[in-house]
Task: inverse folding
């Protein structure tokens, strides 16, 4: 069963983010359960909730990641639950979320990707996400999509990340390799680097520091293609 979803009213998609910020955010639910977000005040008679805050521009996929202490603390329960449910490393979920939105629940891209995991409307529908800006639903949908990609690419994390950015069709077009798009190439490098960053954080939280190899890498991890089990 597919849940109905309308991401944003058309007016929101036609204005710049600064204009969006000035108009505020309105949220209402259609009779069929569709959740609508818009920066345009709804027509008289429609019950709508005006939310505090604004939408924010999502970080560009290729821009450097900004690291900070305990960035996902408020989201950890949702991340860990989704990671367990779909058997995807929590460190990968955090890495994708960091690269996509910098943990901003109201991140919005010019193409319409939205929320923490920057889901496109069609992907959100396919992953049974009803409210794309709800943190738990967005994380659930993004992690479920990572599981779909893991199944598609036999756990090859590099291909999964490339497809998350450019789409499975682009990966297929280039024979199962990372597409030669500058944005996608930079995005894959950033996410994989963040994956090891969060993996090391998880290890330290469990075991404390231990000796690394001469290059500063975890000597137990080795190198080469990373796959999901």
Result:
């Amino acid at each position: 069963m597919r849940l109905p979803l309308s991401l944003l009213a058309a007016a929101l998609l036609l204005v710049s983010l600064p204009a969006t910020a000035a108009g505020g955010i309105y949220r209402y639910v259609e009779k069929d359960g569709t959740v609508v977000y818009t920066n345009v005040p709804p027509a008289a008679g429609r019950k709508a909730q005006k939310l505090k805050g604004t939408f924010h521009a999502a970080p560009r996929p290729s821009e450097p990641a900004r690291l900070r202490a305990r960035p996902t603390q408020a989201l950890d329960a949702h991340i860990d639950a989704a990671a367990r449910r779909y058997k995807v490393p929590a460190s990968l979920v955090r890495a994708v979320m960091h690269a996509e939105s910098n943990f901003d629940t109201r991140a919005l891209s010019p193409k319409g990707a939205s929320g923490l995991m920057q889901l496109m409307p069609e992907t959100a529908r396919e992953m049974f996400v009803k409210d794309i800006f709800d943190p738990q639903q967005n994380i659930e949908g993004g992690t479920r999509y990572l599981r779909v990609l893991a199944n598609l690419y036999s756990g090859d994390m590099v291909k999964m990340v490339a497809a998350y950015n450019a789409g499975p069709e682009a990966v297929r077009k280039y024979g199962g390799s990372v597409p030669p798009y500058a944005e996608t190439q930079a995005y894959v490098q950033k996410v994989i680097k963040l994956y090891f960053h969060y993996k090391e954080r998880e290890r330290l939280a469990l075991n404390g520091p231990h000796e690394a190899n001469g290059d500063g890498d975890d000597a137990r991890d080795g190198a080469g293609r990373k796959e999901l089990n």
